[in-house]
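Researcher: Re-running this chain for the archive, since the previous output was lost when a drive failed. Same request as before.
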Amino acid sequence: MKKLLMAMMLLAAATAVGAPRLPRFTNAQFYDAKGNFLVEKAKDAYLTLMKYHGYPVFPGLRAKLVVTDFGTGRFAECGLGCIMYENNEKDRYMLMDLFLLPKQMLPEHWHVATDKNPAKLEGWLVRHGMSHIVGEGEPNLSPEVVIPKCHANGTVTVQHEVLASPGEFVSLNRVGAHHWQYGGPEGAIITEAANVHDDAGVRLLDPKMNDAYHGRK
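Model: Regenerated structure tokens:
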């Protein structure tokens, strides 16, 4: 709670002296009249987040940036942007950056072994903003964390959070543990390190999101 209050005070102070501020992102700006997800609009939002935090927008970054709303139609509430820098399946190591808009949830999920790779074991270094990193343990969710209705009817199964600010590294407590994240008031830019990533080994709590992630109707 103290960290969140401090972040909000710093945000208010920056606004008071005329520093750049993040716009308010709404679901409507990420969909057309037919409800189709506008990928380029989602990328625009993450680029705005990057520039706000001084994250280096290198040549070719936009092409490398992957965005998803997990089939929810509610990107501002439940979604993710990421850049995979390396995913070495031979030697089994990976590195990627994750991007969360303010109050955007990365859905609850876990990782299982596949025919090609072991289950993913990961950890996260927050570089900019703040992230509620949630996993197994005693429930202690901050009241600022609001699970969107588009996520398993507003439910989760794990509620132990570490409110991580820049420079803090948080590890998954065990292989196979459920986990999720929630962006702070200025969003979050996070570096993830892990043994290896395999899309086939990802399992999402919400069945509809899981089907959308794996390309099933």
